Amino acid sequence: MRTTLTPEFYELFAMLLVAATAVTFVVAAVADACAVRMLRRMAAHRRPTVVPRPSRPVDSAQGRMVPH
């Protein structure tokens, strides 16, 4: 005795396959966006603050820098 798959089965299978593909795509996009946001926040916290170097005093009479 042979059992055949009905057209209803194929229709339901196609709908479930499309739904599963869409859910997978959305979950992957959301996870990727969260990962990018987290990496950007971590990079923003790690940026070193720029400390200006002290400048050399300038000899006002000649307009040149005074040697150390």
What does this structure look like?
By secondary structure, this protein is mainly α. It has a domain at 1-45. It is built from 1 helix and 2 strands, in the order H-E-E. A two-stranded antiparallel sheet has the order 1-2. The longest helix is centred in the middle third of the chain and has 40 residues, at 7-46. The chain crosses the membrane at residues 12-36.
The averaged pLDDT comes out at 83
Residue windows where pLDDT falls under 50 for at least 5 positions: none
Could you give the order of the helices and strands?
Answer: HEE
Helix content: 55-70%
Basic shape: rod-shaped
The count of helical stretches stands at: 1
Helix/strand class: mainly alpha
Instruction: Give the termini separation.
Output: 102 Å
Keywords: Membrane, Transmembrane, Transmembrane helix
SSE blueprint:
Blueprint: H1 7-46, E1 58-59, E2 64-65
Antiparallel strand pairs: 1-2
